């Protein structure tokens, strides 16, 4: 019996056909619910799709190029270097980068290095008591050279393994605090950004048409009072990101300068302007502050009076500024407009579906409404055969009854 019932349901599922039937429900509750759902769909289509998301426009992403120019001078006075002036050629390394620039803020310098034999910097792998603790030819991960196998005095109290290296080896255990070039906070950078939206053949740059040469010589970016000046003070960039320049300058870091171009090309040309924002990009977790900051080594080579090659080694700490440009432009186009209008009209059909689900599943009179909505109709041919059979049966019964009454 169960298999016969399953077969009947399967047959019905495959061969039955459903067609919509219109039922006008005279109910204020259902009518209000239907209008509210339609109103919500209209609000979504008009408010979100067309007004907020500008569904009537075609969009394109920005293509850009960036150049930067840093300016500023600092003065230092140390026992190793004496009084010295530092300008752009000294602290911007390298002079040009793609969409970025680096400014030195701190420095460990080792002068007059020559290749030879000298004690390595003492650490767990280089401190020794005798030559038996040193391995000839061994190079540790943090070593400055190749061990010779000799244990020599590093200073009056400590011995370390001798290495063949650039001597004297660098001592980077004591980092200057405050930062060597703490005056870098007042350096400025001019950022020139040219953008292009190829789909609309629209181009512009962040130095706006109303900016004059005299204005450019005196302006500084300020979010509230001067938001379109392309000259930025380095200290202000870092403080806008919620960081302290003095702290960041000691070990270095990575900052992001974000330039956003969101342009509505249906409006005036002058309305398309850049928006600047700033954030720190390198990880700075106080509870896991391993290998913080940003640094690298650089050397300047020369030959002394004895024609011996020498160099000045610099371990440079500083802030790398990455310039990130992004944005979109939109312009009216008939194709996305018609597509979104069609989608909105199709969504109005959802109101009917939702009302049907609520009325036929959750209302108290759902069985009554189902009876008015759905009607089961037998196949016409099968119904005709059934009626003919019924008529024959009735005719036979009537004939028998007639025959029985007249024996």
TrEMBL record:
Where does the record say carbohydrate is attached? 186
Q: Which residues bind ATP?
A: 69-71, 188, 295-297, 315
Membrane association type:
Multi-pass membrane protein
Disulfide bonds, paired cysteine numbers? 118-167, 128-151, 134-161, 219-229, 263-272
A single GO CC term for this protein reads: postsynapse
State one Pfam family annotation: P2X_receptor
Location in or out of the cell:
Cell membrane; Lysosome membrane; Membrane
Question: What GO molecular functions are on record for this protein?
Answer: ATP binding; extracellularly ATP-gated monoatomic cation channel activity; purinergic nucleotide receptor activity
Q: What is its main location?
A: membrane
Q: What is this protein called?
A: P2X purinoceptor
Source organism per UniProt: Pelobates cultripes (Western spadefoot toad)
């Amino acid at each position: 019996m169960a298999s016969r019932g399953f077969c009947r349901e399967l047959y019905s599922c495959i061969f039955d056909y459903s067609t919509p039937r219109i039922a006008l429900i005279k109910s204020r509750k259902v009518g209000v619910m239907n209008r509210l759902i339609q109103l919500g769909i209209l609000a979504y289509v008009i408010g979100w799709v067309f007004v907020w998301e500008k569904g009537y426009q075609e969009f394109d992403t920005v293509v850009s190029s960036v150049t930067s120019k840093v300016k500023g001078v600092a003065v230092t006075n140390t026992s190793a270097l004496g009084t010295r002036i530092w300008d752009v050629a000294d602290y911007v390394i390298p002079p040009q980068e793609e969409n970025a620039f680096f400014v030195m803020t701190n420095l460990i310098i080792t002068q007059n290095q020559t290749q030879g034999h000298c004690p390595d910097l003492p650490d767990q792998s280089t401190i020794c008591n005798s030559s038996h603790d040193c391995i000839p030819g061994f190079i540790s991960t943090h070593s400055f050279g190749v061990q010779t196998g000799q244990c020599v005095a590093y200073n009056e109290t400590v011995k370390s393994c001798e290495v063949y290296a650039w001597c004297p080896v660098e001592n980077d255990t004591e980092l200057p605090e405050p930062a060597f070039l703490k005056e870098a906070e007042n350096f400025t950078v001019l950022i020139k950004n040219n953008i292009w939206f190829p789909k609309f053949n629209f181009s512009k740059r962040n130095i706006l048409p109303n900016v004059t040469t005299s204005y450019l010589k005196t302006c500084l970016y300020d979010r509230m009072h001067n938001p379109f000046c392309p000259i930025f003070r380095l200290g202000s960039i870092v403080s806008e990101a919620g960081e302290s320049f003095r702290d960041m300058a000691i070990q270095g870091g990575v900052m992001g300068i974000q330039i956003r171009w969101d342009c509505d090309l249906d409006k005036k040309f002058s309305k398309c302007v850049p928006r600047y924002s700033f954030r720190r990009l390198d990880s700075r977790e106080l509870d896991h502050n391993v290998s913080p900051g940003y640094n690298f080594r650089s050397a300047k080579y020369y030959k002394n009076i004895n024609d011996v090659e020498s160099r000045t080694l610099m371990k440079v700490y500083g802030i790398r500024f990455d310039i990130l440009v992004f944005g979109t432009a939109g312009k009216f186009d008939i194709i996305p407009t018609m597509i979104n209008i069609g989608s909105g009209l199709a969504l109005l059909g959802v109101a009917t579906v939702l009302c049907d689900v609520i009325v036929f599943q959750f209302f108290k009179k759902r069985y009554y409404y189902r009876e008015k909505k759905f009607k089961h109709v037998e196949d016409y041919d099968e119904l005709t055969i059934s009626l003919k059979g019924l008529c024959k049966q009735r005719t036979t019964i009537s004939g028998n009854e007639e025959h029985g009454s007249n024996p």
